[in-house]
């Protein structure tokens, strides 16, 4: 990249896509005003990343999309950096994020070691079995549980359907002590498939303080099942199926105060009203507030009920 690009001290937001070319900055990058940095399809060495971070004293947010060659991401000197998002990147294998409050790791390759997450308040995790090609089932479970153990004090956690599928299959093939997490706001992205259920069950059983549970029913086809154990006709999703799923989950929680169910566009207006009545009875039975929402629109308005 041309040298003048690195000498811009007034830029506050920067997005770069290098088509997997190496990013090699000069020794000093005077991005002293930079607050938000997004890098896509870059080859990032540890040295290059350290140089960039050291020259961005007020950097607040970093996004890495499809970046590789990075092994250790040390953010210990970036005191203003509170948001880190990594997507589809082969690395890093170690992250030191002492000041990060929001962490998103999607389509990431494990093992990835987290060091010092004392400031973390919210995290999103998404991974898939296909990213564990060189690991045995027992090793996959160990890696996933170590990650959960590191996140045990985080208040708000989100797990993708692919993560839940991977966790479920690993649990079926290996045995390790499951860590207790202190999460109180838990979001589970789900296809309502039984292949995800063992992971969901274990998470709820080991989240004794969870007060809010959000179920985000994913769009058909957006999350391919690792094993097609249960075939669901999402276009004709029945209210009974949704209620049964919620009811089973409620049995694993003791401190739950609120459940939010996001249904996308699986249930039409009539089905939504029917589901609302069934959920109302369930809410009274378990003394839990249940919120239903759907992206379906009738007369220009989205369906939602509290």
UniProtKB/TrEMBL annotation:
<dbReference type="InterPro" id="IPR044997">
    <property type="entry name" value="F-box_plant"/>
</dbReference>
<protein>
    <submittedName>
        <fullName>(rape) hypothetical protein</fullName>
    </submittedName>
</protein>
<dbReference type="InterPro" id="IPR032675">
    <property type="entry name" value="LRR_dom_sf"/>
</dbReference>
């Amino acid at each position: 990249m041309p040298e003048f690009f690195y000498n811009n001290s007034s830029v506050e937001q920067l997005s770069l896509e290098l088509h997997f070319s190496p990013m090699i900055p000069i020794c000093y990058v005077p991005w002293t005003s930079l607050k938000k940095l997004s890098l896509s399809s870059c080859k990032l060495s540890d040295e290059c990343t350290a140089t960039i971070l050291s020259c961005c004293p007020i950097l607040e947010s970093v996004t890495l999309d499809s970046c590789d060659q990075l092994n250790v991401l040390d953010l210990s000197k970036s005191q203003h950096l509170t948001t880190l998002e990594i997507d589809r990147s082969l690395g890093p294998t170690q992250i030191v994020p002492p000041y990060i409050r929001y962490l998103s790791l999607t389509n990431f390759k494990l093992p990835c070691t987290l060091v010092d997450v004392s400031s973390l308040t919210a995290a999103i995790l998404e991974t898939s079995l296909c990213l564990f090609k060189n690991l045995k089932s027992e090793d996959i479970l160990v890696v996933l549980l170590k990650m959960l153990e590191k996140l045990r004090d985080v208040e708000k956690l989100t797990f993708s359907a692919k993560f839940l599928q991977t966790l479920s299959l690993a649990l079926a093939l290996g045995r390790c002590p499951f860590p207790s997490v202190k999460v109180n706001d838990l979001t589970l992205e789900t296809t309502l498939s039984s292949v995800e259920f063992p992971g969901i069950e274990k998470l709820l059983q080991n989240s004794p303080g969870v007060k809010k549970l959000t179920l985000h029913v994913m769009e058909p086809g957006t999350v391919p099942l690792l094993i097609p154990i249960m075939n669901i006709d999402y276009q004709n999703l029945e209210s009974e199926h949704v209620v049964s799923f919620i009811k089973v989950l409620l049995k694993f929680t003791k401190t739950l105060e609120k459940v939010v169910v996001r249904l996308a566009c699986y249930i039409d207006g009539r089905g939504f009203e029917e589901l609302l009545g069934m959920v109302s009875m369930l809410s009274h039975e378990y003394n839990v507030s249940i919120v239903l929402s759907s992206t379906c629109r009738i007369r220009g308005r989205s369906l939602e009920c509290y």
